[in-house]
Amino acid sequence: xxxxxxxxxxxxxxxxxxxxxxxxxxxxxxxxxxxxxxxxxxxxxxxxxxxxxxxxxxxxxxxxxxxxxxxxxxxxxxxxxxxxxxxxxxxxxxxxxxxxxxxxxxxxxxxxxxxxx
Amino acid sequence: xxxxxxxxxxxxxxxxxxxxxxxxxxxxxxxxxxxxxxxxxxxxxxxxxxxxxxxxxxxxxxxxxxxxxxxxxxxxxxxxxxxxxxxxxxxxxxxxxxxxxxxxxxxxxx
Lengths: 117, 110
Hints:
Chain A is mainly beta. Chain A is built from no helices and eleven strands.
């Protein structure tokens, strides 16, 4: 149980284009989903928290107009990197918090490797 | 300020050589402490949730313990497949957000 998927697993795009990453909770409903960014050999950095049906809450220093988050349902959240630039290249990971027992535990997706040329 | 510190930063063990990883934390009202395993190029895999001092949880060769200031992840008779980065995170009261430590990179040699 508690499986989270991400799509795509990797993407390469040209500078200036937009990229959408999907995060799905496969076997549970996720009240809250989180988006993280991870640089090589570093820990996870929280970018934003999204709740189903409401606007995402962004961490300090994260541009909300650049990283658009949509939490359309209890099983799907999307992160769109708009007008991507090489400095946006990173490993993006989502997590989901369930609605039933053990709601404090976040379950993570496998991550999406974004490379911007 | 809420903070999580993991030690050591890296650890090399021989197969079968038991050891412990440390996670020290300061947080306003601990709501939960979480251990994850992360393999290169993958997302963190959930291991344990601990809620109160004195609590212990076990899974195969891993055992997690919690005090009011720190948590230990004990690895008994590790195998090469236990090689990974182990992440600790804490959640304070009034929030669902995690504060992550920087992780311990474990390498188990055959």
